[in-house]
User: Fold these one by one.
Assistant:
Number 1:
Amino acid sequence: MTTATLSKSQRAYAWIRDRIVNQEFSAGYRLVLGSLAKDLNMSVVPVREAIRQLEAEGLIHFERNVGARVAMVDDSQYRFSMQALSIMEGAAVALAARALTESDIRDARAINQQMIQTLDHFDPHRFTTLNRQFHAALYSKSANHRMRDLVDAEWGRLGHLRVSTFSFVPGRAHESVQEHEEILRMIEAGAALTDIELAVRRHRATTLDAYMSQEHADDSLGPPKLSPRKGESHV
């Protein structure tokens, strides 16, 4: 579906969601419907519909007497998203595996090679962008569009919860690219779909385990230092 064919509420949803995922609207940012409608050159009605959809997805939270704000980061929500993604994406890749061509595999391997090249001078945000592209290259060929939409939505939610998991566990990046290659080899070899699904699930679960282990290690060092909340708008 092109931008021209989207309804106003769909355009508002995509516009606001992109800014949340890209951290332009950071956690705690106040979303004023009138200002958003003006920026989007539309009435408040479709903007309100978009806000309701984003609230249902957990990206926006309503506070009494305040209004809509971008939801604050919650580690439990991050954990739940990672767990859900491991299951859904594992299934999506398995469904897509037989449809992937040699060209598709070659393109995915090229992305993984770019990821490997970032390791010497590690940029977690660049690595995360490439990581997203690699995974999308595998599951996007799934004929089950509903599954693809669910996986895309969960990736978007993760982008809000954590700009880059690899900022917290940079050592995990080296293991991740090796696991990517293993998954590609399984697909090339025509491995059982259940084995491919489990490999993708383990890949995601291992990243979550590494993150949670680091979080617990940080907790043992004492209370976290608080940083100012940025991005709040009162217009």
Number 2:
Amino acid sequence: MSESQTTVAIICHALSEKIADGFYSAAGRLPSERTLSEQFSTTRITLRESLGQLEAQGLIYREVRRGWFISPPRILYNPLQRSHFHAMAREQGRLARTDLIDACQIRGSANVCQKLNLPAQSEVYRIRRLRYIDARAVLYVEHYLNPQFFPDIINDDLTQSLTDLYFSRYGIKYGRVRFDMVPTRLPEAASSALKVAAGSPALFITRINRDLDDRIIDCDLEYWRYDALHIDVDVG
């Protein structure tokens, strides 16, 4: 092991122990890179390699222009359950929040129209939202809706659960759902909203939803921070 690798291992071990002992738990924020470099008498390059390793382990995360933070516990996510985001967080004793980025009617891309089983270049509703767990942005999502089923929905309060809004205003409940989950890199829109570096790793979930009459009503394109989610499925 080279000298630099030994230093990286020492820093990783020391920071891991401090995190485990709750040394930084009051604020959840690590000292600045400059301060840490001085504490360990090392270069910023070696320090960043150490922090990168801890980030890969899911122990810490970085926000652009804000610094390094201790990663909170991952949210348990079971795609087979129909619980919506806020209910899922509440059931796990976590605090959820949803911010609306924008909502508009657009001409759907070929990919979106195909997912919604609509003719090419059909008009669709696009709702973009940023979702938080315990005040930390963890999910950037684009919802694409067939306007036929949800007239004027983009004028509603879209920070609330769409599941609840679909039923309360339109009498529509979810039926079958198709999931597709793949690891990916965050696109610019998602990384900017989540305040992480462009190209950061993420879990990309595509969800195509049908109603109880088996009609495709919407599709969701979800970009989760890779260190925020724990997929947990119990199949009977």
Number 3:
Amino acid sequence: MARQGESATKSAISESAAAITSRENRWLKRFRAALSGERGDDGAVGVEGVRLVEAALGSSLPVEALLVSESGAGHLPRIARVLSAEVPVLRTSDKLFAGVADTRTPQGIAALVRPRQAAIENLLRGDAPLVVVLVGVQDPGNVGTIIRAAEAFGATGAATCAANGIGSADPFAPKALRASAGSALRLPIVHAISTTVLLAQLRISRVKVYAAVASSADESRIGGNVDASVRLLPPWGVDWKIPAAILIGNEGSGLPAKIVRSADAGVYIPQAASASPVGLESLNAAMAASVLLYEAMRQRDSARKQSS
């Protein structure tokens, strides 16, 4: 019976879908541009693959259209429960779909979605907001992974800034969206905000700011762009139960020294000593952010359990 229901659903959607047979079709052009990373005039972005499409349809965000290929139609029963009748469903051939897809092995399903435009206030919701700030993080994969970790570990929002002329990758670009596994469609994100403006707003809101820095396993040494005037703490030395923001810097150069000095403290992640003469490199941006966000969640969960 379940299979019959799924087949009926797939058939009903497929029959109501408009067929596209020309690569010059305006909808295909829109999908081609969006899936290559271009924003539409209305801010719409392209998401591809059944998991991301399902996340987009279930996010309450405006979805302009759904595009499915002949083989991609097999995913329609899975998304039927979150597919609004108001969303236009377009069908095309596998060949034409491959011409607009951003992935090497497309799953044959994509959507145009408009991400929410978050403000700083949206990031600071609740009694103890937790914000991750990406400062010059250039790799889209790192950006997406950090946003995924932020949602998983209870952050209330994320922001992206530039540093020394180096901007952060767009969290709604195709690669970043895939790396976030849909988290970028749910977590409030302020993209490309001025670092100075953001830090000022965090101060006004009495949010403690912690700069992630590189350091050796020896707690007496300070590494990265940190001078001796900066207080340096391990993750467990920070009180993450209060309103807090974590600054994550560029993959190669880290955070600018000026930004680190403006933080309430630097936070580093101790690493095991290495027997190799080359030594260990510091964790990359996404790994460091994940460790710090996890510690913040651990402390907050522990506090909730103690108070209940």
